[in-house]
Known about the structure:
- By secondary structure, the protein is of the alpha+beta class.
- It folds into two domains: about 1-40, YefM-like fold; about 45-93.
- It is about 60% helix and about 20% strand.
- It has helices at about 5-10, 15-25, 45-70, 80-90, and strands at about 1-5, 25-30, 35-40.
- It has a three-stranded mixed sheet with strand order 1-2-3.
- The longest helix is centred in the middle third of the chain and has 27 residues, at about 45-70.
- The radius of gyration is 21 Å and the shape is elongated.
- The termini are far apart.
Amino acid sequence: xxxxxxxxxxxxxxxxxxxxxxxxxxxxxxxxxxxxxxxxxxxxxxxxxxxxxxxxxxxxxxxxxxxxxxxxxxxxxxxxxxxxxxxxxxxxx
Length: 93
């Protein structure tokens, strides 16, 4: 995977777009640290690419919630307690 800096992206954008077309994805860096991904798409694969990105974000969010649950110790709560909390929240609505 190829890395390009923000300054390279701004100053030599035409070259970056050509590289993106060839490489299919690039990592954008700022001060040597990754800050963004550039992912080549076309009319033919735009919908599929967006679905893949959204699916990845959903999986990443679920993983983050699971890790937070483990850190907080709530992953060991009995189902009875979980259902009671859900029902209490529903009654408040």
